[in-house]
């Protein structure tokens, strides 16, 4: 919809008739002040009843629909329309729900603690907006509710979306089974990918990262395939997507066209993704269970950045980077100079740090034995218990020797040899960059 300007008012007006309308902002008081840019609350719901029985069985979508929020994101469109910042809010976040009337029981409830996704169950879009504004102090300008199963159809109309992974992704609950490598996912597989939360210990946080990568890949496919410049294809894609979209009454043709004109040059690098910083995992609340408590300092800074219309991800000159299993930002490295070349250790330390590795910044020197020559081949010394980290580091140092050293601990060591020619850029799918762990879309799509 954001690229609708090249399509025309009549086409967009026709598409708008397919959007369900909700009153997300009625009777709202004491709202946060408006900041710069536009904030859209994007809510993903279940809606599996719209998928055929055969597909529900194939993609393991059994059970009754919960009519609940599976995904909650704030999408901030910058004032200059050059950037979209997407902040995922975990559904199990500890939340303070404002005073309200339950839409199901019609009972009046005072303000009380809940998990964030309970706001939709008790009060629909309106209470969801109120709860998010109360927690973030960010004023929500528009509300978009998407039945995420509609992406299944949209992905198929687009011809599939490319996803890559450096680790096997297998979830017995959803049936997802992707080996290491690059995959072209159809709609059903894409739905499995964004739903999976039993792949590793990251659970729902890991699932949110995959949802963010999926959105980046979807943007990449839409902006590179020519679909946004082809009126017929555009109509097919948006018509499919909008069959299960609900929006506030103020988000109409004029708003779509205004955004479209401003964002016609949108690309993956124009988008950035992060998750609200978590301060305490498994925060127990009587009667509610285990919740995720936001980090009060970091989350406050994050939402202030949204209000101030500031980028969340650090500006980086994009370099082609090799995918590795462990993020450089999680690997500690000590660099030693094994040659007679002055300053080589300092050079290697600086280049590794620039690539993202957490070096000690205090390079040392390995003195050769009397009569021995300089180290010819760069060495990565590592404790076998940290072999995945060692492989990531070795990828950044092509041609190096990997030397296991039992008992060395988590600190990896690099002995720079005379063969050193530079550090290769590497990245991981779960890279943590910048103060809020934000990454741009072009950093998480397949190279």
From TrEMBL:
Residue ranges occupied by any Cell envelope-related transcriptional attenuator domain in the UniProt entry: 69-223
A Pfam cross-reference name: LytR_cpsA_psr
Signal peptide: none
Domain (LytR/CpsA/Psr regulator C-terminal) ranges: 330-420
Source domain of life: Bacteria
Family listed: Belongs to the LytR/CpsA/Psr (LCP) family.
PANTHER family per UniProt: POLYISOPRENYL-TEICHOIC ACID--PEPTIDOGLYCAN TEICHOIC ACID TRANSFERASE TAGU (PTHR33392:SF6)
Name of the protein: LytR family transcriptional regulator
Species per Swiss-Prot/TrEMBL record: Streptomyces lasiicapitis
